[in-house]
Amino acid sequence: MRKSLRHNDKPIIEEAGPLPELEFSFTITRVAVAQICQSMGFKGAQISALEALTDVATRYLQAIAKLAVASANSGGRTQSNLPDIIVALEDLASLQGFPGNSSIRSRSLYTSAVIKDLMKFVEYTDEIPFARPLPPRTIFRQGAKGKYLKYRGDGDNSRGYRDGDSLRHVPRWLPAVPVVEGKEKGEEGKREVKWGCLDGRTREEKEDENWRFCDERKRVERVVSNKEIEISGKRGKVRFKMGVAIHNPTMVGNLRVQGLEKEFGATDYDEKEA
Amino acid sequence: MNGQTSHQQSKDGRHDDDAALTEFLASLMDYTPTIPDELVEHYLAKSGFQCPDIRLTRLVAVATQKFIADVATDALQQCKARQSAVVKDKRDKQQKDKRLILTMDDLSKALREYGVNVKHQEYFADCPSAGLDSASREE
């Protein structure tokens, strides 16, 4: 039994021509089609004839898909189900014709002769497993974790749903949903920054003011409501040094220049606030 | 009355058909189609087919397999008919029987029944080596 040499060799991917992915899937389909022909009794095939038949097979697959999708969409659904596929198969088989196609009364899709033919085919035809194990998916998808094609005979529906960690229907370029903990952490960090320069500040003083000044930082942070920030524990007295022009935000940097005691600074500030 | 009984009958019949169909889909998981699941999923996804149910992908794969098998059967019949038409010595015929090759002619005749027109250039007249190897057809 001799087959055309290409079937037993590894797929040859040419440099120039269609996309490597297109070529790849076409080559795999060609192997499958060649196996089917061999099981029918062919001993060999012309390369052009085999490629033409492979092309027909890919178009048939895509035609089934398109018709099933159209049928589902016209029913207001995005996902196809069994009746959609039967409608697609009937459409494609209507060219050759099948018993029941000409019936005027609406017939049930489940009793369609197309499905019955398929059942007989599955019953009477031996299995022809694919010749070679398929390579992992990493060849054409960068960054994705690949896995070998494993045959799962248990009808695991989730295989078409999950793909490793991510769900198949979620595009890969979408960022993951941010964890809520990170937000709180950020806020806490912010609070720490705010309070890091205000050691020993008492609570009542804090409640009086809306503005917080920090020696180390040049920014002024504003607290909208005092409820957000709460200090735990009592803090000691705070010493901060203020310059002359205290209400001018650009002169905050001069806070270090003059040395004023806290009481004096507080009263000064209170005056200016009022 | 008649309508009611027929309606009931059709209901029972539908139930049987449903059961047969679910049984068939379950049996599909035991049957491995020649076309791998991943390949089928690739082509289905390319055309916008969305279905998390793997049994339906198997169904599509089996349907395609059946289609290709039918085309191959028709081409085989064409090939055999051609061989029986050309009867020379007994030795020649036996040799040809051993080498059933899928040719473009047989395939185009078989595919015509299915509505696919595959026309093949008879020869190329561009360069001197044209026509020596008909398999090297450029698309």
TrEMBL record, chain A:
Subcellular location: Nucleus
Keyword Nucleus appears in the UniProt entry: yes
Pfam families, A to Z: Bromo_TP
Keywords from the named record: Nucleus, Transcription, Transcription regulation
Superkingdom to which the source organism belongs: Eukaryota
Location (main, coarse): nucleus
Keyword Metal-binding attributed: no
Domain Bromodomain associated span(s) in chain numbering: 22-98
InterPro entries: BTP (IPR006565), Histone-fold (IPR009072), TAF8 (IPR037818)
Cross-referenced Gene3D superfamilies: Histone, subunit A
PANTHER family: TRANSCRIPTION INITIATION FACTOR TFIID SUBUNIT 8, TRANSCRIPTION INITIATION FACTOR TFIID SUBUNIT 8-LIKE
UniProt name for this protein: Bromodomain associated domain-containing protein
Organism: Rehmannia glutinosa
Automatic annotation (TrEMBL), chain B:
Family matches, as Pfam families: TAF10
Main location: nucleus
Record keywords: Nucleus, Transcription, Transcription regulation
Keyword DNA-binding applies: no
InterPro entries: TAF10 (IPR003923)
Localisation: Nucleus
Signal peptide positions (record): none
Origin superkingdom: Eukaryota
Role played: TAFs are components of the transcription factor IID (TFIID) complex that is essential for mediating regulation of RNA polymerase transcription.
Family, similarity comment: Belongs to the TAF10 family.
The protein's name in its UniProt record: Transcription initiation factor TFIID subunit 10
Organism: Rehmannia glutinosa
